[in-house]
Amino acid sequence: MFKINENYLKLPGSYLFSTIGKKVAAYQQANPDKAVIRLGIGDVTLPIAPAVVEAIHRAAEEMGRAETFHGYAPDLGYPFLREAIVEKDYRAWGCPVEADEIFVSDGAKSDCGNIQEIFSGDSRIAVCDPVYPVYVDSNVMAGRTGEYDEGTGMWSDVIYMPCTEENGFSPELPKETPDLIYLCNPNNPTGTTLDREQLKVWVDYANRAGAVILYDAAYEAYISEPGVPHSIFEIEGARTCAIEFRSFSKKAGFTGVRLGFTVVPKDLKCGDVSLHSLWARRHGTKFNGAPYIEQRAGEAVYSEEGNRQVMEQVAYYMRNARTIHEGLKEAGYSVYGGVNSPYIWLKTENGMTSWEFFDYLLEQANVVGTPGSGFGPSGEGYFRLTAFGTYENTVKAVERLKALRQ
Amino acid sequence: MFKINENYLKLPGSYLFSTIGKKVAAYQQANPDKAVIRLGIGDVTLPIAPAVVEAIHRAAEEMGRAETFHGYAPDLGYPFLREAIVEKDYRAWGCPVEADEIFVSDGAKSDCGNIQEIFSGDSRIAVCDPVYPVYVDSNVMAGRTGEYDEGTGMWSDVIYMPCTEENGFSPELPKETPDLIYLCNPNNPTGTTLDREQLKVWVDYANRAGAVILYDAAYEAYISEPGVPHSIFEIEGARTCAIEFRSFSKKAGFTGVRLGFTVVPKDLKCGDVSLHSLWARRHGTKFNGAPYIEQRAGEAVYSEEGNRQVMEQVAYYMRNARTIHEGLKEAGYSVYGGVNSPYIWLKTENGMTSWEFFDYLLEQANVVGTPGSGFGPSGEGYFRLTAFGTYENTVKAVERLKALRQ
User: What is the pLDDT of residues B255-280, one digit of tens each?
Assistant: First the structure.
């Protein structure tokens, strides 16, 4: 009789967003006259930029004519996109990355979830706490995380690096040596960042300890301060210890378009085996390339016009982020993030748990956010708001939260 | 120091198509005046159907307007596509499949490669020989296949089911009981099929043995004979033992568009755990949905106009397949497939190995095909031609092969 991967059964239910949905629906049903504002989701709301829409139309036309039709894409992505990426995202920032180190994919979630496959089954992982759940869950599925403790919300074999108000949301170097270190910068969910000096400490540590940094830079486009690195490859030494994940989702509103890429530098090796060759083999065996149309859409993001348009969208969201950050700070809330990130991380009021605060905001202000405890044990007592709503709703939501403190 | 997944190092180099490419390039360079015809690749050549191009344009417009913009897709696919699939691919054939059993993805290769993850690490797999390499390679990466024997080209822990002229390319039930049985019907690379009665034997066997059939129906659109099932769910009992993979790649020329789906019936269980719930968890954790634009493109394939157009393309390719099959048969070659499949499987001449025959055809007829030995040990002595060229080239290639026997 066939058997299943028992590791899947260890995963606790993933109820965060469904519980939010149910609570909001119940509240709306009981209070049909209240206008609830949703600042909980991490999905964008602005439409695709005109230059990108144009590129999609052009690509569709090409696909409809025999002379310009494109079948299977190169496993690792079309040169036109890989070259644009290297030019604008790396060379422009002085990062030593080559086009053949770029692996184009259908998004950072897939890559972040799949990357663990190329590492040994007994690899020890370290994650920030709170954290984007995919890092841990994909390792649970692979059997690397030991047992789950319902009480603490922690896995026995995962090294947690708390990121809280106390340490300025900057994780400390772990006491136990990990094999794989997941870092998300700017961070989801806290919206905070590591600057170049802080990241250099991690790069040096990883090189010294023989660990790989799995660096998620999905929110790179939101960086506004000069001290925050746009890529880990700005840091000397990163080419021998880091893999970087990038996404078009938040930068260009591609959550429904699906495009991302991963950089695996050829200098990153275990003995004489390059991780680049392993990831290439994984891509070639279990993936058939990102769609031609989406790769042309991605290319358009790097055009002069496309870049201007997507940066206007980022600016729109960042005005929302500032509105939330500054408005709530002014009102006396303890608030973090929102400067180099579309996420604002808020301390709950009066020692409420994250869920108590959720209910409080829903009922008293008709504002929906995401309980911080949904991202890990150290997220308890915090709350995430996002900048992806409309400006008008964002202003309204901030006014309502302000009113609660008056 | 971090360690890699050592299973990746066990994989023999994947040189089939690169070796073909090098040999053809070398021949062309030495013989610049010769017009080489390529019938080796499995990629389509006709452009996307007009109704599909139209749907992509419409979807691009929607994505460009705030009121109709689509962000993250539902993990398992948009209802409009899942409903169309169920209606046209299942209900129309009397198959008991529901829309919430359809998982839309970026293609059958990803799904065929990833499906093994939800099964136990010590699962025993059975594959037809010759076979699409992804089934075995994805299990090698997961450590299920034991050791590779360079001499035989076989893995110690894989159950091989030879499909040759002797058994009419119909695999026999294995002597050892497998946990997972990969079946591809119509078959890649042989182009042959199992009929309903033959498939029923497998379904009954799997239910009896407690095995799961991983049924790859990527070439379903090419079925022309009434006795060949379009889905394994036409067979009674399949809902408790089978997962089915489908692709738009060969049906609608989507090799560069990327869209497929997998059917996991809710009745398929290990104890009280449904594989449906595991695959849903996998999808939700490591995948972020197929692009909205591609899902609308897929929907258009099921429209009256779209269906007519893609079926005209299939008919074009099948005229090529008939041309090859009948032409070569008439000339005295031993030829299989090509009736319910775009692949024609040919015995080599005079006991040549597959690669000897490759060189022979390249040099004597300037025709490129794929050596059968590239698909597994029992493919030795066979050769694959595909129907995806132009009709004119296909006719020419057949004339040249005929001439070799005169």
Answer: 999 999 999 999 999 999 999 999 99
Our CA-based measurement puts residue A298 at a distance from the nearest CA of chain B, in whole angstroms, of 13
**Residue pair B64/A48 in contact by the 8 Å Cβ criterion:** yes
pLDDT of residue A42: 84
Residue A151 class from Cβ within 10 Å (0-12 exposed, 13-18 middle, 19+ buried)?
A: exposed
Chain B (234-293) residues lying within 8 Å, Cβ to Cβ, of chain A? 253, 255-258, 270, 273, 275, 278, 281-282, 284-293
For the stretch B112-163, pLDDT in tens is: 999 999 999 999 999 999 999 999 999 999 999 999 999 999 999 999 999 9
Which of A286-290, B12-16, B87-91 is least confident?
Answer: B12-16
- pLDDT at res. A18: 87
Residue B264 gets the label, from left (phi > 0), alpha (psi -120 to 50) or beta, of: beta
3-state SS assignment for residue B52: helix
Whole-number Å distance between alpha carbons of B69 and B293: 11
Q: Do B2 and A66 touch (CB under 8 A)?
A: no
pLDDT computed for residue B150 by the predictor? 93
What is the spatial distance between Cα A215 and Cα A241, in angstroms, rounded to a whole number? 10
Q: What percentage of chain B exceeds 70 in pLDDT?
A: 100
Structural domains in chain B plus CATH codes: 13-42+306-404 (3.90.1150.10), 52-302 (3.40.640.10)
Distance from CA of A351 to the nearest CA of B (A): 32
Find the mean pLDDT for residues A147-153. Answer: 95
- What does the pLDDT read at residue B193? 98
CB contact under 8 A, B71 and A110: no
Which residues between 291 and 350 in chain B have a beta carbon less than 8 angstroms from any beta carbon of chain A? 291-294
Average pLDDT over residues B71-76: 92
Q: Looking at residues A304-308, what average pLDDT do you find?
A: 98
- DSSP bridge pairs for A184: A216
User: CB contacts < 8 Å between A and B, how many?
Assistant: 242
* Sequence-distant contacts of A192-197: CB under 8 A, at least 24 apart: A192/A163, A192/A168, A192/A336, A192/A337, A192/A341, A192/A345, A193/A223, A193/A225, A193/A228, A193/A339, A193/A340, A193/A341, A194/A170, A194/A228, A194/A229, A195/A225, A195/A227, A195/A228, A195/A229, A196/A227, A196/A228, A196/A229, A196/A234, A196/A235
For B347, the enclosing helix (H) or strand (E) is strand B343-347
B53–A61 CB contact, under 8 Å:
yes
**Contacting residues of A for B177, CB less than 8 Å apart:** none
Which chain B positions have a beta carbon within 8 Å of A47's beta carbon? Answer: 63-66, 68-69
Q: Give the minimum alpha-carbon distance from A350 to chain B in angstroms, rounded to a whole number.
A: 34
B124 appears as a binding residue in the annotation: no
ipTM: 0.97
Residue A108 assigned ligand-binding role: yes
